[in-house]
Each structure stands twice: as structure tokens, then as C-alpha cells.
């Protein structure tokens, strides 16, 4: 279950980075903690 979540999260993150590459470069300091929060929420609802 957790492994599947990690794999799914990685795929989603890669897709987002490809689609929003410039945005992620500008907002890197904000997006990384946001992604960590989203991941924690998915692992521990």
C-alpha cells in the first residue's frame, strides 16, 4: 500500500514537473514543503 502510494506520488510529481517546470523552478522553496504535506496526508489520512 505504502509502496504503491510512493510510486503513484513519484509518477504524479514527474508529470507535474514536466508540465510546470518553470513554475517549480521559481516556487521550489514553496512547492517542496507543499508536496511533503500532500504526501503525509495521503499516507496518514
Explain the overall architecture:
By secondary structure, this protein is mainly alpha-helical. It has helices spanning 2-19, 21-26, 28-43. The chain has a domain at 1-28. The chain has three helices and no strands.
Overall geometry = flat
Return the string of H and E elements.
Answer: HHH
Q: Note the beta-strand portion.
A: under 5%
Got a strand count?
0
Uncertain runs: none
- Share of helical residues: over 70%
Structural class: mainly alpha
What integer value in Å does the Rg equal?
A: 11 Å
Short overview:
The protein has about 45 residues and is mostly helical. The chain has helices spanning about 1-20, 20-25, 30-45.
Task: Please tag this protein with its features.
about 45 residues; 3 helices; about 90% helix
Layout of helices and strands:
Layout: H1 2-19, H2 21-26, H3 28-43
Helix pairs in contact: 1-3
Amino acid at each position: 500500500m505504502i509502496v504503491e502510494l510512493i510510486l503513484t506520488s513519484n509518477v504524479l510529481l514527474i508529470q507535474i514537473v514536466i508540465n510546470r517546470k518553470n513554475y517549480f523552478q521559481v516556487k521550489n522553496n514553496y512547492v517542496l514543503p507543499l508536496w511533503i504535506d500532500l504526501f503525509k496526508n495521503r499516507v496518514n489520512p
